[in-house]
Design brief:
The protein has helices spanning 28-42, 48-58; strands at 10-13, 19-22. It is an alpha+beta fold. The protein has one domain (10-58). The longest helix is centred in the middle third of the chain and has 15 residues, at 28-42.
Amino acid sequence: MEFFAPGQNVEVAWRGGTTIRSSGNSYATPFIAGLCARILSKHRRMTVFQLKNALYLSAANVRTGTGGRS
């Protein structure tokens, strides 16, 4: 696992155009997929490596200069 995304208390679409708050692992995957789609829509020629690097560099929990250690 390389990236984490929200999976608890996520606002999701519901019947009748409303929303509910729910939790589950299945909410994290579309979050990351949607983020990738947004990035690729602006940078259509981006490679998979470049996309992964963009995600890594924008992650809130990444510490630089520690060799990956906290």
